[in-house]
Design a protein that fits this description.
Radius of gyration: 24 Å
Helix content: 40-55%
Strand content: 5-15%
Oligomer: single chain
Number of helices: 16
Order of helices and strands: HHHHHEHEEEEHEHEHEHEEHHHHHH
Largest sheet: 8 strands, mixed
Shape: globular
Length: 440
């Protein structure tokens, strides 16, 4: 079985890169007509290779490093000079970002076929979360994504909202969107529903609960568990006042939902949901709302423990922003930004896929959660040229096996229920203004 799984992974690496750009996807019919250095295959790979060094270097350094490794694989003559950075910059503008995204989708689909099914009481568990991503300053990015507003007006740098659909049992991203900074998180969460199927369970933080969200989940037969804000929901206030721990209540359609669904008579005027009280170790109280109404199948204690499983999406966001340094963009146009975002998620998908495979090679599936993502991403990045570009199957399989073993060796037993106080990472200023200046 392990050898068959490695063969599937080997086939994915061989077929990952696109061989051509479809005529309807080209920005200009003249693109990719002549025999150039940057073919669609090499261009998409170089875009992926671009984000593998945490974006610490410029185009020229990355091209020189890549050409040196390609020379070692006899893909280019030894000591061949790398292309100029301007050539790569111009070539990137011709590559539609969707081709990098298609590689991500291919990796996710293959992982669904390869990895063992991980379920909670027979359900797949998905969390959705959004985070703001700072972008380089350019007129095109400001016009497309917008700038956040602050006390003095508009900020200097544009921002985007990055929304994710995350499988919390396999630590894999299944879907994501990058939208203007003024876009609502609920709006993007609804777009992720097309990636879910009936019987899945969605976990959401307190920014998401609304009648519209509840109905959109229920009509697709997808379950939800959401943390409720303690105000201004009347059903939550009444539930807390009653002292109950677990109760099913009737939720009436609010006026905002009436307006939203005025042309849809199929939407019910009320629905039944279940409220569960959770008391944190700090003494604070949380309330969860869910469509899992059966207390025998889903006891109160199980529901109280379920929401904690949402935490891996926060760790995934940390990996993107800290370990992979997503916000260190090279491009200053929308297509280039989308290329790099897709490349970051592609690197994450390949790394997670190899981590899951590493547990089958040298560990047990339960030990997957103790593997280091940061180390695994570094191991994959270091040998990415061989793993994807090499045409020597014997060498590629050997390097693939070596990478899986290295990933499996960096293991630390998970330590659950740890808690540390939050602290600010803002820079300390030696000379800090102690009082507001008054105008003369």
């Amino acid at each position: 079985m392990v050898l068959a799984q490695q063969e599937h992974l080997f086939q994915l690496l061989n077929s990952l890169l696109p061989t051509a750009i479809a005529p309807q996807d080209k920005f200009d019919a003249r693109h990719f007509q002549r025999d150039r250095i940057f073919t669609p295959q090499l261009l998409t790979f170089t875009t992926l290779y671009l984000v593998c060094d945490q974006n610490n270097f410029g185009y020229k350094h990355i091209l020189e490093t890549l050409w040196k490794k390609m020379g070692e694989l006899a893909m280019v003559p030894p000591a061949t000079a790398a292309p100029q950075k301007s050539s790569f910059c111009k070539a990137r503008r011709k590559l539609p970002a969707k081709y990098v995204h298609d590689m991500f989708r291919q990796a996710v689909e293959r992982s669904e076929q390869m990895e063992p099914q991980r379920l909670w009481k027979g359900h797949r568990l998905f969390a959705t979360d959004g985070m703001k991503v700072s972008l380089p300053s350019s007129a095109e990015l400001k016009a497309h994504f917008g700038c956040p507003q602050n006390d003095t007006g508009e900020a200097h740098y544009p921002q985007a909202l990055l929304s994710e659909l995350f499988n919390v049992l396999t630590d894999e991203v299944y879907d994501y969107t990058l939208s203007p900074c003024t876009t609502g998180e609920r709006e993007q969460a609804l777009l992720h529903l097309k990636r879910l199927r009936a019987g899945d369970v969605g976990l959401h933080d307190r920014n998401y609960p609304s009648y519209e969200m509840f109905w959109e989940y229920q009509k697709r037969k997808i379950h939800f568990v959401m943390r409720m804000p303690l105000a201004p929901w009347k059903i939550v206030e009444d539930f807390l006042a009653s002292g109950a721990v677990d109760r099913c209540v009737k939720l009436n359609m609010p006026a905002s939902a009436h307006k939203f669904y005025k042309d849809d008579p199929t939407v019910p005027k009320h629905m039944t949901v279940r409220l569960v009280r959770v008391t944190l170790p700090t003494g604070e109280t949380e309330v969860l709302v869910t469509s899992l109404l059966n207390r025998k199948l889903y006891p109160t204690k199980a529901m109280q423990e379920l929401y904690i499983l949402r935490w891996p999406i926060e760790e995934g966001n940390k990996s993107l922003k800290c370990h992979q340094a997503m916000e260190k963009f090279h491009a200053k146009d929308v297509n280039g930004i989308m290329q790099e975002v897709h490349a970051h998620y592609l690197l994450m998908a390949l790394t997670r896929l190899m981590m899951l495979q590493a547990t089958l090679v040298a560990r047990t599936p339960e030990q997957y959660y103790g593997l280091s993502y940061k180390s695994a991403a570094d191991f994959v990045s270091n040998d990415l040229v061989v793993l994807i570009l090499s045409t020597a199957p014997v060498r590629k399989k050997r390097v693939l096996h070596e990478v899986l073993l290295m990933i499996a060796r960096v293991y630390e037993k998970p330590r659950y229920n740890r808690s540390y106080p939050r602290w600010s990472r803002s820079s300390w200023r030696k000379y800090r203004q102690r009082y507001a200046r008054t105008p003369a």
